[in-house]
Amino acid sequence: MLITGASRGIGAATALLAAEAGYAVAVHYHRQEAAAAKVVSAIHGKGGRAVAIQADISRESDIVRLFSETDRLLGKLTSLVNNAGVLERQMRLEELDAARLQRLFTVNVIGQMLCAREAVRRMSVRHGGLGGTIVNVSSVAARTGAPGEYVDYAASKGAIDTLTVGLAREVAGEGIRVNAVRPGFIYTDIHATGGEPGRVDRLRDRIPMRRGGTAREVAEAILWLASEKSSYTSGTFLEVAGGR
After folding, report:
1. What angle do CA 216, 1, 50 make, to 5 degrees?
2. How far is it, in rounded angstroms, from Cα 89 to Cα 107?
3. Segments making up each domain of the chain, as ranges
4. Residue 176 contacts residue 124 (beta carbons within 8 Å)
5. Each residue's pLDDT tens digit in the chain (244 positions)?
6. Burial, 183: exposed, middle or buried (Cβ in 10 Å; 0-12, 13-18, 19+)?
7. Active site annotation includes 153
8. Among candidates 129, 134, 92, which has minimal Cα distance to 112?
9. Over 131-177, what HEC string results?
10. Which member of 5, 7, 133, 227 has the lowest number of beta carbons within 10 Å of its beta carbon?
11. Which class would CATH give 2-240?
């Protein structure tokens, strides 16, 4: 299993859970080398197999290298978790500039599409592969729109939802299942990146379950979609957002 953005948060939790499930794990990271090494060390400490691979998901050449290194170090790819994504400071749309939009959509949309491309090229029976799974990490923001805070981020996740449906139908007959999770109100440090570390606690009373979620809870959903337990499920979404 290759997990992009796996040095922290949901990606790291997914890497640890995947190793427990018996996957050899490619832990992708961009800048957080020490954090990625810590995830790999934790997996090794429990007898699992993992490697950390650096790549900039905004660069096509880096994405190609990421998958080639995964092939070389771990063998045949059976699952991709398209998790890498960026978020910028809370801002109304009227304040945005093109440079911010370019940064965000290059990683959150183009990067994820190129990662999916590389996975399909390896897993599709049309290309001599044995099939596999792709799990895209979307967001409940794709449904709510994140007004006044992250309309650009929400729009990028809406694109991922469309990618999930379209690609699932495109490769369903080629042995590949494509699904997505939509996390919401999860305790990770992405909220600090957006300028409000305590955002989940501020919004907690609006969540029907009256609490935020954990990265591990999202990872459990991802692993179910990646596994044979969801063998008749494709082109669908699993929301992990406390009932919101």
Report:
1. 85
2. 16
3. 2-240
4. yes
5. 999 999 999 999 999 999 999 999 999 999 999 999 999 999 999 999 999 999 999 999 999 999 999 999 999 999 999 999 999 999 999 999 999 999 999 999 999 999 999 999 999 999 999 999 999 999 999 999 999 999 999 999 999 999 999 999 999 999 999 999 999 989 887 765 666 677 787 878 888 888 989 999 999 999 999 999 999 999 999 999 998 8
6. buried
7. yes
8. 134
9. CEEEEEECCCHHHHCCCCCCHHHHHHHHHHHHHHHHHHHHHHHHCEE
10. 227
11. alpha beta
Which one-letter amino acid corresponds to residue 221?
Answer: A
Residue whose token pair is 């459990």: 220
pTM value?
0.94
Catalytic residue among 23, 150, 153, 187: 153
3-state SS, one letter per residue, for the chain: CEECCCCCHHHHHHHHHHHHCCCCEEEEECCCHHHHHHHHHHHHHCCCCEEEEECCCCCHHHHHHHHHHHHHHHCCCCEEEECCCCCCCCCCHHHCCHHHHHHHHHHHHHHHHHHHHHHHHHHCHHHCCCCEEEEEECCCHHHHCCCCCCHHHHHHHHHHHHHHHHHHHHHHHHCEEEEEEEECCECCCHHHHCCCCCHHHHHHHHCCCCCCECHHHHHHHHHHHHCHHHCCCCCCEEEECCCC
